[in-house]
Amino acid sequence: MEPSFFSIGEFSKITGLSVKTLRFYHEKGLLVPTVVDTESGYRYYDHKKIEKARVITQLRALEFSLEDIAAMLRRCEDESDILGFLERHKEQIEQGIRHQRNIAANIERIIATEREAQRVMAAAGYAVEEKTLEPMIVAGVRMRGKYSDCGKGFSQIGRKLGRHLAGPALCLYYDCEYQEDDADFEPCMALRQAVEAEGISVRTLPGGRCVTLVHQGPYEQLGRSYAKILEHVKRKQIPITLPSREVYLKGPGMIFKGDPKKYLTEIQLPVG
Amino acid sequence: MEPSFFSIGEFSKITGLSVKTLRFYHEKGLLVPTVVDTESGYRYYDHKKIEKARVITQLRALEFSLEDIAAMLRRCEDESDILGFLERHKEQIEQGIRHQRNIAANIERIIATEREAQRVMAAAGYAVEEKTLEPMIVAGVRMRGKYSDCGKGFSQIGRKLGRHLAGPALCLYYDCEYQEDDADFEPCMALRQAVEAEGISVRTLPGGRCVTLVHQGPYEQLGRSYAKILEHVKRKQIPITLPSREVYLKGPGMIFKGDPKKYLTEIQLPVG
DNA sequence: CTTGACTCTCCCCTTGGGGGAGGGCGTATG
DNA sequence: CATACGCCCTCCCCCAAGGGGAGAGTCAAG
């Protein structure tokens, strides 16, 4: 062979593309050898093909599909010709980044919630305590009806504000007594920052002193913990205001339903 | 069949997973039907499987691989059990985001450079002009030797600071006359922000008045444009300082080599 | 001429399913 | 009772962008 022709192995070393890849690009018509020996089938590449291989490598590094690259090679020989391709591709990549960020935020939230639950689990003596809450930004959906419908509120918030959620879910109760079928309550979720959303009330929930008790176990047994905390409040004659809160430190998670015996719910009764 | 068993089609509607997908998950052992009729081969799913399908869907939404999901389902039944998986996965996703951002930045840079070149191309009368330059942050590699080695400097900067690059490449010339083999020059690239890098000088290049001329054509013909601009400077008796600059508005691009007749190079001689 | 390095084609594998062919099963209707 | 329709099965091929390897042919040097 002429000294100016390279065998596929040599060309592979020159371009950094594997032999497999070169054969594949040949098959796809993307990078066709200058000469193919009709008898042996050996591929031989020209020095001009080095430049073309470099172009393909650059475009692959920008994660263009081979199909797009083929289209670009057919129609372009200057950067200005591919501006449209570049912009479309960039938009797609940024779309992908937004998507990935969304996922990362969701995972982060699951981790944070679980961490917080573990911290509470380790620290809690499951006794009535008095503490000061920090103000927090929440998104809430005020509802009237059955408590069991609060899941709908959470999923509504999740759908609209998924990527802004920050902490555990909670629920505000505006009734001063237990209401079976006509309760007035508001499922809420903590937000990283205030964002507007239709049909959802986003605001800062005030902080302040409150009486709390962490309940461990299934929700059906929340009554016992309410008895305990209310007994404490009555005995100490602490004045309580509405709305009271339940913070779902650990419940049926985003992923697993988990064991109800391990659920952790913090009851918070604001002092006022 | 018992009313509590669902055929694959019903189960598909319940879970939102396609029939194909359900069969695939069965094959992978990820979501096995409660009962498989030995004669007809029909799959029947239990209501417990709905929960499992939901878990799988959630994990898929977080873009876990089916393999990872299978491992998680085998070993976990609570969110706390998968914290390790979640953290590793989050790290991977963030790695991916960094990668994508890098690509998006590269594309953005190519687009911006090309846009700038088009703007100059449209506006330029290819005449000697006097204008005021803005200060800019650059990364440079001072070199001594042949002009043709400046490509090495550019690739060195590109390797180390790829994701911070902002504008077109340029080159500073510290010789007051043309030097063939022992030139003193500095390939530079504009940065978005000041970043440190070993062996690379990052600093703010001062702005100020200068005499400029846009040269269109291959680099071999730069001499003509130099003649033109120097003639102008001499005639008007404008005092010139070093280093002079060449800004490569359009040259062999990141991707295509392009047509040398379309190359645009702006010669800038600082007035001082 | 032989040997070792190189190359060829062909086939299977990856992920997460989608599309369709050809055939079995059950039931509602003419 | 026959049939038509809907649902289900398995089996095979397809996507992107190659990787791995088998078995056979080719090239160049000793």
What does this structure look like?
Two copies of one chain form a homodimer. The first copy, chain A, has 272 residues and is α+β, with helices and mostly antiparallel strands. The first copy, chain A, has seven helices and twelve strands. The termini of chain A are far apart. At the A-B interface, helix 3 and helix 5 of A face helix 3 and helix 5 of B. The structure holds a DNA duplex (30 and 30 nucleotides).
Task: Give the structure's gist in a few sentences.
Chain A has 272 residues and is an alpha+beta fold. Chain A contains seven helices and twelve strands.
Number of helical stretches of at least 4 residues of chain A: 7
Order of helices and strands of chain A: EHHEEHHHEEEHEEEEHEE
Mean pLDDT of chain A: 90
Specify which chain pair forms the largest interface: A-B, 46 and 46 residues
List the helices and strands and how they pair.
Two copies of one chain form a homodimer.
Chain A: E1 6-7, H1 8-15, H2 19-27, E2 35-36, E3 43-45, H3 47-61, H4 66-75, H5 83-123, E4 129-133, E5 136-140, E6 143-145, H6 150-161, E7 165-173, E8 183-191, E9 201-205, E10 208-216, H7 222-236, E11 244-250, E12 264-270
Antiparallel strand pairs in A: 1-3, 2-3, 4-10, 5-8, 5-9, 6-8, 7-8, 7-11, 10-12, 11-12
Chain A binds a DNA duplex (30 and 30 nucleotides) through helix 2.
